[in-house]
Specification:
- This protein has 206 residues and is an alpha+beta fold.
- The protein has one domain.
- It has four helices and ten strands; from the N terminus they run αββββαββαββββα.
- A hairpin with a 4-residue loop joins strand 8 and strand 9.
- It is globular.
């Protein structure tokens, strides 16, 4: 039966026996920003994957993901704040792209392409509501940097672990989530705002 709620965890996928494709339906590397558009010294990175990562590397920097799994795993978990409930649309396609920053820190972009713009907005709004309600002090702490109707930036910090800058944006039928590891995520607000036009210019093209 086809999954209908991205807020519900999917069944555990079977162990990967082959590398994932580099494209996902209409989504390909051309829907993701070129690394130099995200920052000086940024590079694409071919993730080798492995047993711990749960996928086999495909010798390129983009890979198809299971849409339900990708949409569910993107939602915050381990929050101390009041949980947000309600179903979320499942995207039709999901594509991940991996980068390295100028400081050789990992960054990942995830594109979720939905059946239509209404579903994309419903997922974006649900994602944003969950991030806003997450709060601080749990296994995961989220702090909002800024937000508008179609773009948001926040910091995501795991207890005793690394911190990320999370950018989310909506364009047409596509939601893009860009996360980069940062030792000083609170100072990345201007950078986050600067890359939104670049994301919006590519993510929803056919």
């Amino acid at each position: 039966m086809k999954p209908t709620d991205a807020a519900v965890p999917p069944e555990l996928p079977e162990q990967a026996t082959a590398p994932p494709p580099a494209t996902a339906g209409p989504l390909s590397a051309r829907n993701l920003p070129a690394p130099e558009k995200l920052g000086a010294g940024w590079k694409t990175y071919a993730d080798p994957g492995g047993a711990e990562a749960g996928f086999l590397g495909n010798n390129t920097w983009t890979r198809k993901r299971d849409p339900h799994q990708a949409a569910f795993e993107a939602l915050p978990s381990g929050c101390s704040g009041a949980p947000v409930t309600g179903s979320l649309p499942v995207p039709q396609h999901a594509l991940a792209g991996t980068y390295r920053t100028a400081d050789a820190l990992p960054a990942t972009a995830l594109l979720l392409r939905f059946a239509n713009s209404t579903n994309a907005k419903a997922y974006y709004d649900g994602y944003h509501a969950r991030m806003t309600a997450c709060g601080t002090g749990g296994d995961l702490s989220v702090k909002q940097l800024w937000s508008d109707d179609t773009a948001t930036a926040a910091t995501r910090t795991y207890a005793g672990a690394e911190s990320y800058v999370d950018i989310s944006t909506l364009q047409g039928a596509t939601v893009a989530l860009l996360a980069t590891t940062s030792p000083h995520p609170e100072s990345q607000s201007p950078w986050a705002q600067s890359v939104i036009p670049t994301l919006k210019s590519t993510i929803d093209t056919q």
